[in-house]
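Batch manifest line 461
LIGAND: fe (iii) ion
JOB: complex structure
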Amino acid sequence: MEIIPDFLLHNCGQLLTIAGATEKPKTSQNMNDLGIILNGAIAVKDGIIIDVGTTRKLRKKYDRKISQVIDAEGKVVLPGFVDSHTHAVFGGDRTQEFVQRIQGNTYSEILKKGGGILNTVENTRKQKNQELTEASKKHLDTMLLHGTTTVEIKSGYGLDEKNEFKILKTIHYLQQTHSIDIVPTFLGAHVIPPQYKSNPEAYVNFVCNMLPAVKPYAIFCDVFCDDGAFDAKQSEKILKAAQSLGFKLKIHTNEFKDIGGVSLAVKLGVVSADHLDNINLRDILSIKKSCILCVLLPGVPFFLMKDTYAPARKMIDHGLPVALATDFNPGTCPCENMQMIVSLACLKSGMTPSEAINAATINGAHAVEMAHWVGSIEVGKQADIIILDIHDYNQLPYYFGVNHVQTVIKKGWLVVKDKQLIDLYPNQAFGDSFRRKDTRKKRNSSVHRRERRGRRVCDKG
Ligand code: NIG
Ligand code: FE
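JOB STATUS: finished
ARTIFACT:
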């Protein structure tokens, strides 16, 4: 039977397909290759990419069969960003601490005095479910407006049973209702809460005991293994317990100090080790022998006014797979915009624009084990596509601090048009969603979404 696309996106001046790295993340050999098709086009059906090629070829093939043709007007088109590390569900903000830091107080000093993460824990505990959901939805909307179509979100501002579940259930609700694909992570081991200060081991046990009940709500388990948080032994205990229950693992490490987090990451075979601002050559070489993704978060040293950026250049040159993410959170990077992170990676860590774009798309997808679904524009993947209002991809990091994203298509749905969010549900007011009505019901069904998500993760084994 002949397959007729729902729509054709054509006249993409530079179509960055990011193709060829679904099985394995990009490394030095192909990190500068964006798989560019000049004057490219994409055919989409039921939210899935069914054909990719030049405009000439695809128009010839489909012109007489389809009614919906979208003109990218010669602009840059690429897959939606995959933000593989965020803490997007939290209460309050830390504007006052920001001012204190500018006046000379360090992040660690503020944390040791009961501020920092603990300040946000207090604010998050105070919030009602609905307030938390509304605040988080606003952050996700901003992400979507800036071109992020898949995001990982960690818990970790609850630090007790009731509030960690409040966060995890908020993430779960957003999974069902928001256009962005969300990958949930349990970060009960974010810091030791004050009441456990004299007996941190009791908190480590408490986190381990929570794991079975958390399992239905999180795919990954993460630990903040660093100075002032959890030491390597405590981290190992939690991560091993999580691994035995079938969680995939992540680790925050070497953000402030090297306390052995990388050796632990290699030993346990985590999916990603994140931050790595203070990493030595020995650890770089040990990661090389593993298949760990290095998720770099240059927004953090930038916002903390530090000069210790992860040595991305050295890591890539040694063959390590590098991804970029925001670390969006109220304390160390209140920035939802992946474009800004791409600029910082170029300017502060010596990545080329092509390396940074690969790191923010397909390698991010690998960091959340979603590479079979998202991160590139290839046949069989979700139609998560963004159009930037520029004509040369190098201008993405060049014109920094602004939003280049003009259009966002998520699973074949038009969700951002002319830099404005389109609300998909109330009365379907817009006339030009790209997909047919009958598929909309499927998208609305939470069961369908859950099944698809489950399959995604299992598919990769
Ligand atoms: O990734 N390092 C641990 N967690 C966050 C900071 C969270 C906060 O300060 O609220 C981070 O930087
Ligand atoms: Fe983080």
